[in-house]
Fold this sequence. Notes:
alpha+beta, Alpha-Beta Plaits, 3 domains
Amino acid sequence: MFWHDLFAELRRQFISPEKLAVYLTRAVSVILIAVAWFLVYLVAGRVVRRMLRGGSRLVHERRGRTLVTIVHSVIGYVILFVAVIMCLRVLGVDYSAILAGAGVVGLAVGFGAQTLIRDFISGFFLLLEDLVSVGDWISVGDISGSVETVGLRITRIRAFDGTLHVVPNGELTRFGNANRGFMRALVTVDLAYEQDPGRGMALARSVADQWYEENKAVAVEPPAVQGLLNFGESGVKIRVVCKVKPMQHWTAEQALRLRLKQAFDASGVEIPLPRRVVYLKSDSDPGPDKQTPN
């Protein structure tokens, strides 16, 4: 009898037609909120991409690619938060207490996650000041590579050998960026001591000028030949310097080295090889202090 009355009361409280209608109404409302959140998320993504990728210059385009993921994610989280609050309200849950508790928990977590907060703040200012963008080649400590993603917390850098480095934004306090303004192609050449340095510099200047005439789309300024930078063990150093567009310095250096080598070989300009002078002295020879004066 007891169990029969208990089951009857449970059916009346939870499985009655009136209760089922309420459950159905709430389930439909939650589904509609989820569908609306998904549609708004898709529309917001399209709007963000169109707004941030509308720039015509290279820097604007790269910055747009960097910001589109960040802004889309932030908007998605905000819309999701609003959708969750609406679902809780439909289900009859007192969400004000949950929000108050979440605020206290968030404050406690904030004190224990200062490094995480620093990473987020650093990432925000990196994006705000446009210090680094997707596609930039940067150097951070002993890491150099192309930036694949810039998030609010971490930055992913792909090295030349394919290694993916994940760097927290809080560690990007000092780094080099090869995609800002211009770069300089630097080619250093050694000339033998027996070689006339003026002739070698004149030939290097001729080669550099010819390369500049054929690559004005890459070079920003005419190249210059800096002579006699140093006296080495086997020769003297000269250097060819040319200001080029970002990320073009490696290609320019390779082309200039090849042309200089070919021109030096054709003109007989000697590039020194390592050499060593050895003096041989027998034990029977008198030393400098044992020689008799004439």
